[in-house]
Amino acid sequence: MSTVRTTLCTVLGIEYPIVGFSPSEHVAAAISRAGGLGVLGCVRFNDPAELDAVLHWMDGNTEGKPYGVDVVMPAREPAEGAAVDLDAQIPAAHRKFVEDTLLKLGVPPLPDNSPVGDGVLGWLHSVARQHVDVALAHPARLIANALGPPPPDVIARAHEHGMLVAALAGKAAHARGHVASGVDIVVAQGYEAGGHTGEIASMVLIPEIVDAIGDQAPVLAAGGIGCGRQIAAALALGAVGAWMGSAWLTTEEYALTSAMPAVRSALLAATSSDTVRSRIYSGKPARLLRNRWTRAWAEPGAPEPLPMPLQNLLVSEAHQRLMRSGQPDVVPMPVGQIVGRMNEVRPVAEVMADLVRETDQTLARLGGLT
């Protein structure tokens, strides 16, 4: 019987202090069923109706256990407009660089009649607001924002619906601002994390944020957490639980949403040295697998990445082509430095069980020190 319980378990109604973020509803639901809180990343849903359908699926596949949603609402609203309007703002030189790079990398065009799509519009403030509207119609327990506190009206509406609000922070000053804005839970995300991340490492950042906000809000630790020993370390630093994202990318359930063998091969082969923090994915600093695609953007003469959301629109078709190329050394994949531990494909329930077991064992070992 696990003894790994913190105040977070009571607040969220979960068994273990593990919050698992994933763009896959299959992963998020499995995390909730296994005793954690699965958080579904909403940014991939350009169509609110598709998100609504997926959340209906979550409602029916979490065994009545709580889950959360994650939106992306930039602190500064990006330029709005339809994809066509935004597309006109992309310089021709950037387009040429992307096309030339794909040619050099040997990446074939999309198959005939394959839809190119509009890129990920979830980074637009207006689309993120639609995500919030959809989420509020479902019994999610938590709504998290990857880019700081949501606008005051979003926080107020979430609270009216009985939802807690979480926001990621990369600096102590950010965390203080989050709490002042009405955020209920602060996620202290260190430099090691995958996707959008800051410049301060978790070992330094977590206690800084814990000390900065005191008892005003609980702190979750994120960045560089992929095993029970690291969860125990986060608890020792003052966090009440762990927020984990990268660790689920090599689970069996993730393949149900994203069946890309090249991506899986790249993740399984990567070491903790094989990531890079760059703005080429979305326009904001994000940690990705380091490969021939990321290196091309770092070469002399390469253009500077565009601001969000223009950069994602620029590389949207390229991302699809890179993903479908079958080449593990070009896939544009956000992942944290913890990728070096992701060496096998396992079901979510098994990953959760190992996390809890090792956390228990580590805390017991530390408790026996004199």
Describe the structure concisely.
The chain is α/β, with parallel strands linked by helices and 370 residues long. The chain has helices at 7-12, 25-33, 48-61, 83-87, 92-104, 125-135, 152-160, 172-180, 202-213, 228-236, 254-257, 261-269, 292-298, 310-324, 348-367, and strands at residues 18-22, 37-41, 67-71, 142-145, 164-169, 185-189, 195-196, 219-222, 241-244, 275-278, 286-289. 41% of the residues lie in helices and 13% in strands.
How would you state the average pLDDT, rounded? 93
Roughly how many Å apart are the termini?
Answer: 25 Å
Sheet with the most strands, sense and barrel status = 8 strands, parallel, barrel
What is the radius of gyration computed over CA atoms, rounded to a whole number of angstroms? 20 Å
Per DSSP, the total helix count is 15
| Total count of strands | 11
The helix/strand series, from N terminus to C terminus, equals HEHEHEHHHEHEHEEHEHEHHEEHHH
Q: How much helical structure, as a percent, in the residues?
A: 40-55%
The multimeric state of the shown protein is: single chain
Estimate the global geometry from the Cα principal axes: globular
Helix/strand structural class: alpha/beta
| Strand proportion | 5-15%
Write the layout of secondary structure elements.
Blueprint: H1 7-12, E1 18-22, H2 25-33, E2 37-41, H3 48-61, E3 67-71, H4 83-87, H5 92-104, H6 125-135, E4 142-145, H7 152-160, E5 164-169, H8 172-180, E6 185-189, E7 195-196, H9 202-213, E8 219-222, H10 228-236, E9 241-244, H11 254-257, H12 261-269, E10 275-278, E11 286-289, H13 292-298, H14 310-324, H15 348-367
Parallel strand pairs: 1-2, 1-9, 2-3, 3-4, 4-5, 5-6, 6-8, 8-9
Antiparallel strand pairs: 7-11, 10-11
